[in-house]
Amino acid sequence: HYYLGGIYWRKGDTKRAGDELEKYLQLAPKAHDAERIRATIKELRSKTKSG
């Protein structure tokens, strides 16, 4: 899900990117990069709403 999120992000599909990253955090809520991923999801969601 982590890598799928990156792929969708690069393709410009911010909604699907955020969805995949959320799934990643559901599976690994204590991942070493969890805070960064949460910030990325927040950024993607703001782009989804404004775009």
Give the count of helical stretches.
3
Order of helices and strands: HHH
| First and last CA, distance | 23 Å
Number of strands: 0
Shape: globular
Based on the structure, what is the oligomeric state of the protein chains? Answer: single chain
Whole-angstrom Rg: 10 Å
User: What's the story with the biggest beta sheet?
Assistant: none
Mean of the pLDDT scores? 95
Helix fraction, binned, reads over 70%
Low-confidence spans: none
What proportion of the residues form beta strands (DSSP E)?
under 5%
Number of domains: 1
**Secondary structural class:** mainly alpha
Describe the protein in words:
The chain has helices at 2-11, 14-27, 34-50. The protein has one domain. The radius of gyration is 10 Å and the shape is globular. It is mainly alpha-helical and 51 residues long. Helix 1 runs antiparallel to helix 2 (14-27) and helix 2 (14-27) packs antiparallel against helix 3. The protein has 3 helices and no strands. The model has no long low-confidence stretch (mean pLDDT 95).
